[in-house]
Amino acid sequence: MALHLLLPLSLSLICATSSQSIVQVTTSVDHKIRIDDNLYCDSWRFSVETNDAGLWQKIPSRCQMFVQDYMEGARYRSDLESVASFSLAFAKTIKIGPDGKDAWIFDIDETLLSNLPYYQLHGFGSETFDEASFNQWVDLAVAPALPASLNLYNQLKLLGFKVVLLTGRSEAQRNVTGKNLLYAGYRDWERLFLRGLSDKGKPATVYKSEKRQELVNKGYRIHGSSGDQWSDLMGFAIAERSFKLPNPMYYIA
Ligand SMILES: [Mg+2]
């Protein structure tokens, strides 16, 4: 076909498809159809939040700005409020017994406390996780509360739930973690589970399931569980309802 015939055809194809934001067809392995960054990253976020993506290491570099906008903008707060509101609606359907065994489990990082000030300095999940520098941040004990979670926490306590905290942080971080929780406004938790020596190396799902099983063995009824990772919520001895908070910055298997 002569070039002068091909050009108008190509242009008309681009015009016809640009309204759907499909601007370039590539042969990349993960995405045959290349779409604009916003649309691509929104779909990527859907796949990581639903766990369709499974294990992932870093956010795609083209999504750093998208994740930043999400985390710093109204959308993250709105999503958190939505999750908290569904959680509270469920909690209100539970008949609290007189034995003090009606429990709700919270994860800590990106569930009760926000490490956004740290991730703002570290590419919003686009950098390889550096445990040493993250632990230095944890030691400062100044992570703010996620407001929707603090409100849910307080409402659950008013309803009569025992709040249990279950974190992948280590026992060595118990004091700074307690200090940070108090600094952020959390009070009167029933238990705080951290990884002890015997939990070292266990996948998060196994470690957290074992701790939940401990609670069940002590007679607790785990009605609800809130976490930003699927590994907070899956496994065995799971809660009657699990509530996944958004976190497009990192994945913990
Ligand atoms: Mg977490």
Descriptive report:
By secondary structure, the protein is of the alpha/beta class. The protein folds into 2 domains: 3-35, no CATH class; 63-244, HAD superfamily/HAD-like (Rossmann fold). Helices cover 45% and strands 15% of the residues. It contains 10 helices and 7 strands. It has helices at residues 3-18, 37-49, 64-72, 74-91, 116-120, 131-140, 147-159, 174-184, 204-217, 230-233, and strands at 22-25, 33-35, 102-106, 162-170, 191-195, 221-227, 241-244. The strands form 2 sheets. It has a 5-stranded parallel sheet, with helices on both faces. Strand 6 (221-227), helix 10 (230-233) and strand 7 form a beta-alpha-beta unit. The longest helix has 18 residues, at 74-91. The radius of gyration is 22 Å and the shape is globular. The structure holds magnesium ion (MG). Magnesium ion binds at residues 107, 109-111, 227-229.
CATH H-tier superfamily of the largest domain: HAD superfamily/HAD-like
In sequence order, what are the helices and strands, one letter per element? Answer: HEEHHHEHHHEHEHEHE
Note the total helix count: 10
User: What's the CATH topology name of the largest domain?
Assistant: Rossmann fold
Rg, Å, rounded: 22 Å
Keywords: Glycoprotein, Signal, Storage protein
GO molecular function, one term: nutrient reservoir activity
Function: May function as somatic storage protein during early seedling development.
Organism: Cephalotus follicularis
